[in-house]
Amino acid sequence: MARDLTIQIRLTKEEHETIAAQAGREGLGVGTYLRALALRNAFESSGSPRGKAFAARRRAQERAKSSRTRQAVRKGHRR
Known about the structure:
The protein is an all-alpha fold.
């Protein structure tokens, strides 16, 4: 059964700026970014097949990003 959930959080100016910067890099607004982050974390921690797939995809993305960063550093470039 689907349920609606409302969460209210208070952020410092610095926290909001940090989150806004990350959201902007992903082409999202702060609210959308936080909702997506909450959903991803909920799915990943659920232990369901969907959650396991989310977690596996995230690990693969992190490995790919780490690999690209190491390659760039070896070539003398910084990301």
